[in-house]
Specification:
Elements lengths: L2 H8 L2 H10 L6 H8 L3 H13 L3 E3 L10 E3 L1 H14 L5
Amino acid sequence: MDWNLISLITSSKVRFKVLTTLNKNEFTPTELSNELDIHISAVSRTLSELIEKELIVCLTDDRKKFKYYKISEKGKNILKKINDETKVSFD
């Protein structure tokens, strides 16, 4: 089990909210910002962190604007482990 990734996600409300929201559907950064009521700069920074850890993927890498993101299988597995180990629900 990757406790470092679990700790990374659970130590930040923004990371946790972004990852759990992407678990439901694909979103652009602006849509995530509006959905979660989080400033766009915090969303963008979080998306970069989650991509670096391979927890999410960009579906429209070639575009400069209106990029869509979704959770990766690795991200889904981490959320499941967080739910199993901590009983923090992401539904």
